[in-house]
Amino acid sequence: MKILATKKDKIKFIRSIIQGFILFLVVRLLVNAFFSFEVYGHYDMDALDGKGSKGFIALSYIGVDREGTDTLISTKRLEEHLEALKQNGYITLTQEDVINYYSDSQKIPSRSMFLMFEDGRRDTAIFAGPLLEKYNYIGTIFTYANKLEEGDPKFLSPRDLISLKEGTYVEWGTHGYRLAYINVFDRYGNFLGELYPDEFIELRKHMGRDYNHYLMDFIRDGNKIPVETQTQMQSRIRTDYMLMDEVYNKHIGELPGLYAIMHANTGQFGSNKNVSTVNEEMIREYFAINFNREGFSYNDKKTDIHDLTRMQPQAYWYPNHLLMRIKDDTKEDMTFVHGDLDIKKDWEILDGAAEFRKSSVIVTSEPRDRGLVRLNKDINSGNLALHARLTGNKVGSQTIYLRADRDLKEYISIGIQKNNLYISENGKELFSLDLNDHDGIIPQSIEENRLEALKDEYRIYNKNSKRLKNPTKMEAQDEVENMEVDSVEEGGEPFIPEMQIHELGDRKVDIFLRNNKLSVDIDNKEAVKDLSLSERPGGYIYLESAWGEYGYSQRNLADDVYDGVFEDLVIIDMDKEDEVIYMNKLQGRELILGKIKDRWNKIINWFIINL
Q1: Domain 55-175+245-319: what homologous superfamily?
Q2: 518 DSSP β-pair partners
Q3: Which of 126, 210, 292, 481 could form a disulfide with 307, with the two C-beta atoms 3.0–4.6 Å apart?
Q4: 178, 144 Cβ separation under 8 angstroms
């Protein structure tokens, strides 16, 4: 028993050391974020050549997380973005620079950028702060006034804001008094009324686009008829601005001079003309700058300082994706990121841009077009096996071309687009497969999905019936709880959810091509076997990414660039005793070190979340 106790004590001792070390790292992150001892270096206005810039770009990140989520960019990816911007000569502007630029009293650099971080999250400040200091960039962090009073530890406190501003790399901005949703309907026309953010997030999967933000419209009933008069609407909206002004002055001594209204993008200052008039009046009264639109990054002197536009780089964008979007907005040349030059020398970039990393090739398309790279080897043998993971998003197209000629007029192509496998020869489709069917997924019926939505909506309604308006187009709750509907197996029509632009993809693809037969496995499961092809010799191998269609996204209205990601690419000549033609995959020591690093990061992330 003594030996066992000693062993337990040793384990506890080791665990305590690890926890202490991680706690030290977390405290250091906090200190670095809120107590910077460096000073932001403003650009030298006297050193500007000529007239300076014709305009500036504005980038607004939703938030920053150490490892990243589907909406919050990881620190690693954010640093890749900032590094790419720095290499392209971008210099940040302060709020005062923007004001002076529009008053014609100040020139700005030829490549100027206004940088923003939304929603006022503490993790954004913790992880973005050191990067701003590293690259000598200044950014504005937005907050909601009501969050300053709620004391939610996920969001910046007034003390945090004051500390950040004292550090010189961060300025203040505001999204307004509150984030709230009005006139909300689910995809089946059920009226949900008003929702707070946590309620909205819980029910988001059941919604389409039929909702609005608190300051964008009249409050309406289930028949979309206003339940407030013009005077009441004006009073409600003006009160929100006055509350915002009161809270900021109370807690930090002043109202920020920069506003980003949630959520206009309508060509005016609200979804309704009369509402827009009130918002515009209050915005011009309270703020020097307002970002009113999103989707495009470029602003110039023709843009109203109260009607500026910003781009929201997404968490999944590789740096060339960001640069490609900026290039399209500004019509200026960009120096794209190439990555590992030893890997790059094996490839020729034909369209778009490409970044080459150990174990991955990222092919970024042109806007509304494609990206294309070719392996610098004319493979004599047409009999080969190709293995890869395709990890680009589901919306878009990732394609591998085999036995192709130099003009890409004759080829065999294997591609995944919108979660479907397509095989073609010289442009003629030979085979297609819905990968949901391949996975054995049985979809809900439309009625099953509708019933699930009703149950979730009633659950939220019962949690807070005072705030969530009693739906006017929903069945009685007791009827919902006891309702029975047909599944797909019972004859119900399948429910096919709309694929979102940010949905991640990850497919292991194994291709076997011998003579005139092609077999493909997806995720270690046979997708097609011995598909007949025309006889043709070997040729080139291409990788392609392609923008699929105009993709709507509430987060980014105009993202028409696509990143095809080809990981762990291995090509084998089956005629030469499985000789490796090409390999870009971590092996041996690098693979082991990579796994150790991933495990360590997960441990640190757990402590950051739970401490």
Answers
A1: Glycoside hydrolase/deacetylase (3.20.20.370)
A2: 513, 531
A3: 292
A4: yes
